[in-house]
Write a structure and sequence with these properties.
This protein has about 160 residues and is mainly α. The chain has 6 helices and no strands. Helix 1 crosses helix 4. The protein starts with a helix and ends in a 15-residue tail after the last helix.
Length: about 160
């Protein structure tokens, strides 16, 4: 039970981060709730796949989260009459692997001033972190792109014309 609560809490904060990025990028007010929902879905899916129950890696978890965001964002964008990018992009920004990128940059700075015996260890760690950041970003991109390509096969939701009973 506590693991589910932790996943829900992380999903909540991913939703808050997505909402913040939506506000930062001047998303329409009518889409802000749906931005939070998109970020929440992304966080729930990513951390559920990372949990001990499923045990997937960070790359697969990020791919699935990007895929689910694309699947959720497509009907929401059509329903709210906003471009899908307005919903999808702020929702996936909390998935970006900041820790791996930070560690790779710090490793590059260590390599610039380190010529001692641990040079190869620092080099290996830096390459690992850089490659992981790249793989996670590519996985998020492919997941979202796959969902956006598949949206052609999702039937359109049409609103009823005014005065229609």
């Amino acid at each position: 039970m506590t693991e589910l609560l932790i996943i829900a809490m992380k999903g909540f904060w991913c939703g808050c981060a997505a909402l913040g990025f939506g506000i930062l990028f001047n998303a329409p007010r009518r889409s802000l709730l749906y931005l939070w929902i998109g970020g929440f879905v992304a966080g729930i899916v990513k951390f559920a796949f990372l949990s001990t129950v499923i045990g997937a890696g960070i790359v697969l978890s990020s791919f699935m989260a990007g895929l689910f965001v694309g699947i959720v964002a497509t009907p929401i964008a059509r329903l709210r009459d906003v471009p899908i990018i307005i919903i999808a992009i702020p929702s996936i920004i909390p998935l970006v692997p900041g820790v791996f990128a930070y560690r790779a940059m710090m490793g590059l700075m260590k390599l610039a001033r380190n010529t001692g015996g641990e040079y190869l260890n620092v080099m290996a760690e830096t390459v690992y972190n850089g490659v992981m950041a790249l793989f996670v970003i590519v996985a998020i991109t492919f997941g979202l792109a796959l969902a956006l390509i598949a949206r052609r096969f999702i039937p359109r939701i049409r609103k009823k014309p005014p005065g229609f009973i």
